[in-house]
Amino acid sequence: MREGTAGRIAALIRHDLRLQMRDPAPLLVRTVMPLLLMGFMQPLFRTALQAENVEGATGAEQAVPGMAVMFTFFLVNLVGFGVFREHGWKTWDRLRAGLARPGEIVAGRVAVPLGVAMLQLAVVFAAGGWLYNLRVRGSWPALVVVGAALALCVVLFGMALVALCRTVAQLAVFANLAALLFAGLGGALTPLSMLPDWASPLAPAVPTYWAMRGFTTVVLDGGGLAAVLTPVAVLLAFSLGFAVLTLAFFRLEHRKISWS
Amino acid sequence: MTTEPGPGRGSDAGQGARQDGEPDPYGGVPALALDGVTKRYGAVTALREVDLRIEPGEIVGLLGHNGAGKTTLMSIVAGLLRPDAGSVRVMGVNPVTAPHAARRLLGLAPQELGVYPPLTVHQNLLFFAELAGLRGRTAGRRIEEIAEPLGLTALLGRRVAHLSGGEQRRVHTGMALLHRPPLLLLDEPTAGVDVQTRQQLLELVRDMAAKGTAVCYSTHYLPEVEALDGSVAIVSGGRMVARGPLKKLVRQYGDSAVELTFAGPPPDIPLPWPSSTDGRVLRVAVEQPHLAAPRVLETLGGSAGELVNLRIVHPSLESVFLRVTGRRYDADAEGDADA
Ligand SMILES: Nc1ncnc2c1ncn2[C@@H]1O[C@H](COP(=O)(O)OP(=O)(O)OP(=O)(O)O)[C@@H](O)[C@H]1O
Ligand SMILES: [Mg+2]
Fold first, then answer.
1. Which domain holds residue A71?
2. Looking at residue B328, what is its pLDDT?
């Protein structure tokens, strides 16, 4: 690593944290909403699981990870706004003309959303698990590994969207659409067994599917670290794909249009 | 938007003169050296073969009408834009090939206000101090050092969103100073600030120059440049049309004149002196304007009734500007004020 890089990334992270602290409401809402929605989704998932003859299923086994996964994807907005607001405040060019290198600026922009995603997943799982009596049959470390891979995938998906979108309106609509579409196809919003025939083969094409597979492997099937290797590997492959997209299309000098 | 400099373009030849990343061991390296810099935005040529040299400790007032190319020039120096041709060196370092090294050596306060409104003044300054590698006490001291001459000390705890426009601009300027760059680029730093702040800022700039900082200062307010008493660079239509110490330019180009503003178009009267018109202003070039004014008025005869203003113009930066650009500095503004 070049001299001073770690210090400058740390400076960017502290700066981003100061900005987050000024406006914590969105973070809170993204954490509380999934806890509420789990209540609505639980009976649906219970019916589906009972139809599959899963013994003692309460529905929380899929409602809790499902909502946790879906709301993690809403964090794509957080990644995007982190870049777009700098354009709105006209500070982006100041950053570019400043002492941070391009790679450091990107790393600084990714780090805080990554931390937020991990924290949000942890809180939603812990609080949701407690509220809806989630019984995790497998290993907690395996859950953490799946969560970390998911968080990375979401944040890099956000950067790829930032690279591809010119306006903040485009970013918001694609981010929210992707969150819902991925949740629907991936079994986070509705049980996979209830997907229409044409949709089921598409499910493995979305990262949400693999996150859900990883989580349910641990929660329902009692899987450990070895059992989640495949879903984690696929999530990392998605992350790599998004990173490549970002590298290919993201240019610091591109003008982004935020509010104006 | 930016264009890669094409291979083998003629004016790139100058880049071979000095090796990148190998600045001369200081003595005699200009803080800024532009050679034949050209920049196009599509069909618009914003800069044409501009040369500019700024020595350490020198203050250069960069002047020019709206759209003359001042901001484009500063953006190229700061590495935000790539020149289509020509070479740029900041303390001998090429910002195109060694952007990081060049940025350590320069501080840019852009024309457009760029601050973090949700954060406090202190947090805004702290961010740039931290990027410069300062932490804790050292960062705190540097922030105080910058805040004091900018009159921000009492505002450090306030959120920038709650500051007035002029106060925000001072924060904006301060953010460019925290790493103590040897070259400072200030793009219209006094836009929208009051008289007192303007004075404070000029004093700060003079102070920094006295300590060896080279300053490139763009403004539309000529008395400011006169107050800085440095040198002047005038761009017009993307060309550098005058460059030199203020006093020398005034001696060289500073004409004296009587300027007459009429309610309508100036009357078409034959005058015994060279004259020119610009909108509703008739400019009569005379040697000793205060002595010639009564005779100019006599010559007007009946048209004197249309007269709304008479002005004695002594050799000054303003008359230099007129001579080298062919337009009065405040042509548009004055037209509005009299309407
Ligand atoms: N991004 C851009 N795309 C196209 N043309 C541009 C762009 N930026 C500037 N220009 C044009 O380049 C020319 C120089 O603009 P520049 O902003 O450098 O002028 P300036 O001297 O800073 O003017 P002002 O005093 O108004 O700030 C103008 O004709 C302007 O219209
Ligand atoms: Mg400008």
1. 5-249
2. 63
- Name chain B contacts of A8, Cβ cutoff 8 Å: 130-131, 133
Q: What is the mean pLDDT of chain A?
A: 94
Query: Ligand 2 is a single-atom ion; what residues have CB below 5 A from it?
Result: B 70-71, 111
Mean pLDDT within B301-324: 84
Ligand nearest to the CA of B75: 1
Distance of alpha carbon B49 from alpha carbon B11, whole angstroms: 9
By Cβ distance, the residue of A22, A96, A100 closest to B118 is: A22
Q: How many CB pairs under 8 A join A and B?
A: 69
ipTM: 0.92
Domain count, chain A: 1
Whole-number Å distance between alpha carbons of B256 and B242? 18
Note the pLDDT tens digit of each residue in A209-221: 999 999 999 999 9
pTM (global) more than 0.95: no
Least CB–CB distance from A96: residue in B80, B115, B135: B80
Question: Who lines ligand 1 at CB under 6 A?
Answer: B 41, 44, 46, 64, 66-72, 111
Burial degree of A207 (CB within 10 A; 0-12, 13-18, 19+): buried
Identity of the amino acid at B242: A
Cα separation, B256 vs B239, whole angstroms? 25
**Chain A within 8 Å of B177 (Cβ-Cβ)?**
no
In angstroms, the CA B101 to CA B185 distance is: 16
Q: Model confidence at B222, in pLDDT bands (50, 70, 90)?
A: confident
In this structure, is residue A19 part of a structural domain? yes
Question: Each residue of B145-184: pLDDT tens digit?
Answer: 999 999 999 999 999 999 999 999 999 999 999 999 999 9
Would residue A259 count as lying in a domain? no
SS3 of B242, please?
A: strand
Interface test with A, best of B2, B120, B127 (most A CBs within 10 A): B127
Please choose from B44, B48, B84, B332 the residue to mutate so as to test ligand 1's pocket, defined by most ligand atoms within 8 A of CB: B44
**Which residue blocks in chain A are alpha helix, DSSP H?**
5-22, 25-51, 60-73, 76-88, 92-96, 102-131, 140-164, 168-186, 207-219, 229-249
